[in-house]
Write a structure and sequence with these properties.
By secondary structure, the chain is α/β, with parallel strands linked by helices. It is built from 10 helices and 7 strands. 42% of the residues are buried.
């Protein structure tokens, strides 16, 4: 395991315990379906940016009928977990997991029908470059469908938001809805749509905090360690604060590459 892996095996186990087997972000298969609202995946080739430990790739194939999913991630532990999950499901012929380095996507122009991502683009600082690359690898008529963690404004985060980002220690690179919208349109996308998910996750995160810190805390500590859970409770308390404040604003982002 590389020393700079952000999602080590302990974090993967904890997040899957909280969010479901194979999921490293909230909402599970239902939220994947909501991100894909209006996007037909059946029979299509999909690139999954930040594929995590593989549950989404399985959902894209099993639940949405994708012909083939190419999942990409920058970390060995999650790529290994995703490959294992695809193999266990007998889907290695329809799911390919590729470790990549930050930068341009290692695929030819017009390689995919859909570019998908769930809560991973936050780790890509240059949203304009990301949008251009997504546009490049999409075939004409292809769709971009993602969810991401946004900040509600341009400029520096508030002290409260900065404290939350520091606690996460995940190299967040948050952009505002306006910045995302401009990046998508400048890349050439049509039908750009941003949907604010703050009200949804503010409620979910509060319930997650209550789960970790309430009567079930001893069980979480037994599974993951008391010190680790104390750290997560601190992070979630800060997360709930910036969500309720409205500065932290998860969004769905969609766009279409013109024919």
């Amino acid at each position: 395991m590389a020393d700079d892996d952000l999602y080590d095996t302990q974090h993967i186990a904890f997040l899957e315990d909280l969010w479901g087997d194979g999921y490293l972000s909230p909402g599970g298969a239902d939220e994947v379906a909501r991100v894909l609202d209006g996007v037909d995946v059946a029979g299509k080739t999909v690139m999954d940016i930040g594929c995590g430990s593989g549950a989404i790739a399985l959902a894209l194939v099993r639940d949405h009928g994708a012909a083939h999913v190419t999942g990409i991630d920058v970390e060995d532990p999650v790529c290994a977990a995703a490959r294992d999950r695809a193999a266990a499901a007998g889907l290695t012929d329809r799911i390919t997991i590729t470790k990549v380095t930050p930068g341009p996507f290692p695929f030819a122009d017009e390689s995919f029908d859909i570019v998908f991502s769930k809560d991973s683009i936050i780790h890509i600082p240059d949203k304009a470059a990301m949008a251009l690359e997504a546009f490049r690898v999409l075939r004409p008529g292809g769709r971009f469908a993602a969810s991401d963690w946004l900040i509600g404004h341009d400029g520096a985060p508030s002290a409260q938001m900065a404290e939350y980002i520091k606690a996460e220690a995940l190299e967040f690179a948050m952009s505002s809805p306006a910045t995302y919208d401009a990046a998508m349109r400048a890349a050439g996308f049509a039908d750009v749509e941003l949907i604010d998910r703050n009200p949804w996750y503010a409620e979910i995160a509060a319930a997650e905090h209550a789960e970790l810190s309430g009567p079930n805390r001893p069980g979480w500590e037994a599974r993951h360690g008391a010190g680790f859970i104390a750290e997560q409770i601190d992070i979630w308390s800060k997360l709930v604060g910036v969500l309720r404040k409205g500065e932290h604003r998860p969004h769905h982002i969609r766009g279409r590459k013109p024919e």
